[in-house]
């Protein structure tokens, strides 16, 4: 059931208010656009984009005043956020333009009814709670959508920073570069286990040469990743283990003799090929007798 905002006591007041805002739509929208420009808001948008968005926001704003449909407002606010966030619009800009529209329309109502103060008070009593509710709903929806976009971007970055690469049949390599925090370690495990299942991998080489340090929690997670991979039938070789990380593993009680560790990535790949039954040969130096 659609929620309806209770904004008026007089049944005839709301249609009168909405009719006035629609009648003067062009002038009020232009005045609002001018205020936006003076406040240096939406500068990431072109003049054409701003004109289109201000027209759309104005019409939806007045429609919500008329219908009181919060669900429709939330849907529009989400749609607006999806369109303007990729253009670099910030949260304070969205809040700012909605508050400017609220004030422009309130001033217009004041000018229309200023000769009749009792009626003006009734109009403003009807308008202001609804206008504030619209501003709040738009702001909350924008923040929610922005956070969703940020989370999505962070997930994409993590996926790019921890790629599971098939080197050859049933052999995967997972090169890790940069800081390995708890969240990234969890995602690493999920990606690796998915890769093992997808590629039916038998050997995985995890190279941590590019990891400067890990804390105890992440070190435990790394051990759990090795154990989980084994449960899925894949042997794990860890390469690039620094003295500092090795010391951390020993400190938390990890038996390094149970982990297959190789000094560098090249050696790890050679060991992986041996485990898979391939014959490993090294090329002789060029030009030798």
From TrEMBL:
Organism: Petropleomorpha daqingensis
Keywords: Phosphoprotein
PROSITE patterns named in the record: STAS
Annotated ranges, domain STAS: 161-272
Record-linked Pfam families: STAS
CDD domains: STAS_RsbR_RsbS_like
Full protein name: RsbT co-antagonist protein RsbR
InterPro entries referenced in this protein's UniProt entry, alphabetically: Bact_StressResp_Reg, STAS_dom, STAS_dom_sf
């Amino acid at each position: 059931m659609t929620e309806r905002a209770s904004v008026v006591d007089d049944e005839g007041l709301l249609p009168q208010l909405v009719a006035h805002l629609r009648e003067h739509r062009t002038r009020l929208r232009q005045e609002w656009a001018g205020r936006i420009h003076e406040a240096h808001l939406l500068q990431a948008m072109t003049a054409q984009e701003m004109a289109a968005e201000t027209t759309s926001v104005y019409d939806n704003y007045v429609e919500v005043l008329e219908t009181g449909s919060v669900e429709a407002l939330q849907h529009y606010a989400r749609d607006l956020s999806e369109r303007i966030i990729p253009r670099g619009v910030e949260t304070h800009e969205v809040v700012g333009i909605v508050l400017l529209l609220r004030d422009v329309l309130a001033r217009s109502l004041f000018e229309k009814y200023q000769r009749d103060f009792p009626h003006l008070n009734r109009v403003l009593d009807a308008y202001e709670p609804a206008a504030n509710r619209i501003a709040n709903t738009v702001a909350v929806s924008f923040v929610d959508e922005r956070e969703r976009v940020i989370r999505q971007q962070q997930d994409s970055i993590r996926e790019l920073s921890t790629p599971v690469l098939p080197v050859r049949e049933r052999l995967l390599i997972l090169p890790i570069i940069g800081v390995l925090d708890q969240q990234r370690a969890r995602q690493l495990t999920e990606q690796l286990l998915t890769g093992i299942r997808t590629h039916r991998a038998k050997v995985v080489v995890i190279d941590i040469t590019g990891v400067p340090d890990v804390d105890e929690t992440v070190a435990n997670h790394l051990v759990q990743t090795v154990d989980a991979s084994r449960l899925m039938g894949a042997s794990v070789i860890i390469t690039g283990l620094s003295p500092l990380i090795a010391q951390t593993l020993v400190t938390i009680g990890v038996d390094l003799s149970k982990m297959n560790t190789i000094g560098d990535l090249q050696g790890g790949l050679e060991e992986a090929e041996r485990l898979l039954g391939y014959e490993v040969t090294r090329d002789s130096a060029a030009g030798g007798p």
